[in-house]
Design brief:
The complex is a heterodimer of chains A (251) and B (271). By secondary structure, chain A is an alpha/beta fold. Helices cover 40% and strands 25% of the residues of chain A. The longest helix of chain B has 44 residues, at 2-45. Chain B is globular and about 75 Å long. Classes of the chains: A alpha/beta (251), B mainly alpha (271).
């Protein structure tokens, strides 16, 4: 279980997170929606220790992690994988080396054959074949995003964090990535937090949806609860949803 | 009237606001730099050392930079000896002191300083742009997420490899400079090969050579330290990478000149 309690984060005089509190149960998929610049990515980066909060607590399986040192965080990060907004692949390494990179660090005892087997498994899970020897710039942006996902799941994290995983992708690839997130979370039984702008996708695969506005949590609930919400921003997000889809999700 | 008074008071306050703002910026950057420097030195002195990355950097920095540096420095050496010969003939009516002065200049200044400037533009700028791009495309964050310390993985191997490369390149650069100065002396100043070496030996000592190597090591430490610092602090976008690279090259050039003065001043006590 992952809990965030009264989390506050400030950059200079600008308060980006204003006392956010959230709890995510094991195996749950939580979507975090909100306009750009409302602190969604900052929330994720605080959870994995890339940013330090000003105040508040982050409890991972009951352990307070927000005050840990960088070295202590390395242990926590073995449990948390994050897919960034950019694919963030290492340009000088091939696709194979990128996926194997974390494996070699997290499991130094693995033999080369075991590493190869795991890399192939992960690339299969994200539906990629025959790209192992290519460098990241030699494959499409959508493929790079999938390699990034494969690299993250290769180390078998119990918590998966996605920072706008479908930004900059065409609708077909967006759907494929969204399906992958759902499939992987169910197959690997991971707890997932997905930062997104895509309400349609959130209603499709999320267990619960949180909506942030100006650093505050303004709505939290299951897709069917969100569909009935009267919060103006939530209604704005729901404007693109057709009546047909709405009644399908409500039923 | 009120607007006029406001504008007047703004005009009076503007230099103070500007200076205050700049002072805060400089002190913040310096504070960040010293935090980074102390973290780097602690990481440098604690295991594990990433030997594979060190060898890769040694190849990229040392092996790949040597030809262009030796090519460029040979022209600097020949220009120097021609200038020396011209001025000495003009002032003291003889070129007898040219080999000695030229060799001294090569060992103590030309070799380490020109090598450092060329390393700054070739290696330092490249390092900065690489780390800057990694920073803005979240590759540095991805490293942290995979439990890899970017300081240990990216900075320390570059730091050690640049120091070692700089020293080795300066040894080759000194030899190249002397060779071309000798060729120039034989062809244009009527020296024989032996005559050049004898005249050079009268003026130079072994410590001129190794103090030049000390300078090379210090410059080799300065270049990656500054380049990586600006790389990690790169702001998003092509403009951010460009600005960071410019800042890194300028800061390196200024630091090398200042360090050169400090070291030359300190070494003057050894003579």
């Amino acid at each position: 279980m992952l809990e965030v309690k009264n989390l506050t984060k400030r950059f200079g005089s600008q308060e980006v997170l204003k006392g956010i509190s959230l709890a995510i149960s094991e195996g749950e998929i939580l979507f975090v929606l909100g306009r750009s610049g409302t602190g969604k990515s900052v929330l994720l980066k605080n959870i994995v220790g890339l940013l330090k909060p000003e105040s508040g607590q982050i409890l991972l399986e009951g352990r307070e992690i927000s005050k840990l040192s960088e070295e202590e965080y390395f242990e926590v990060r073995k449990m948390c994988g994050m897919v960034f907004q950019h694919p963030a692949l290492f340009d000088s390494l091939t696709v194979y080396e990128n996926v194997a990179f974390g494996l070699r660090r997290h499991f130094p005892g693995m033999t080369p054959e075991e590493v190869k087997k795991r890399v192939t498994e992960c690339l299969d899970l994200v539906h990629l074949e025959g790209v192992e020897d290519k460098l990241p710039p030699q494959i499409s942006y959508g493929m790079q995003k999938r390699v990034s996902l494969a690299r993250t799941i290769a180390v078998e994290p119990r918590y998966l964090l996605f920072d706008e995983p479908t930004t900059g992708l065409d609708p077909v690839t967006t759907n494929a990535i969204n399906r992958l997130i759902s499939e992987l979370s169910r197959k690997l039984n991971t707890t997932s937090i997905v930062v997104s702008h895509d309400m349609h996708c959130a209603l499709e695969i999320a267990d619960r949806i949180a909506v942030l506005d100006q650093g505050q949590l303004i709505a939290l609930g299951t897709p069917s609860e969100l569909l009935k919400s009267q919060v103006p921003l939530v209604k704005d997000f729901l404007a693109e949803i057709t009546e047909e889809d709405r009644s399908r999700w409500l039923s | 009237m009120i607007l006029g008074e406001r504008l007047q008071s703004k005009a009076v306050l503007w230099p103070f606001e500007y200076l205050g703002g700049e002072l805060i910026k400089v002190s913040t950057t310096l504070s960040r730099f010293f935090d980074y420097l102390s973290e780097m030195l602690i990481t440098l002195m604690t295991p594990p050392f990433r030997f594979k990355e060190f060898v890769t950097q040694l190849y990229l920095i040392g092996y790949k930079s040597t030809p262009v540096i030796l090519f460029s420095i040979s022209f600097a050496a020949t220009a120097t000896i021609l200038e020396y010969a011209f001025h000495m003939k003009l002032v003291i009516q003889t070129a007898a002191l040219v080999p000695g002065f030229a060799a001294l200049l090569v060992f103590r200044e030309l070799g380490p300083v020109i090598t450092a400037f060329l390393l700054t533009s070739k290696v330092g700028a490249g390092m900065n742009a690489e780390l800057g791009t990694m920073q803005i495309t979240e590759q540095v964050d991805a490293l942290k997420l995979l439990s890899v310390d970017p300081m240990r993985y990216l900075v320390v191997p570059r730091f050690v490899a640049t120091i070692l490369s700089s020293v080795v390149i300066v040894i080759f650069a000194d030899a190249t400079c002397l060779f071309f100065e000798m060729v120039m002396s034989v062809r244009h100043l009527d020296y024989s090969w032996e005559g050049f070496l004898t005249a050079m030996n009268q003026f130079t000592q072994f410590k001129d050579f190794y103090l030049g190597l000390v300078k090379a090591a210090v410059f080799g430490a300065v270049i990656p330290t500054i380049a990586c610092f600006y790389g990690f602090n790169t702001q998003p976008g092509a403009e951010g990478v460009g600005r960071s690279t410019t800042q890194s090259v300028v800061s390196n050039a200024v630091s090398i000149i200042i360090m050169d003065f400090i070291l030359t001043y300190l070494f003057s006590y050894l003579y």
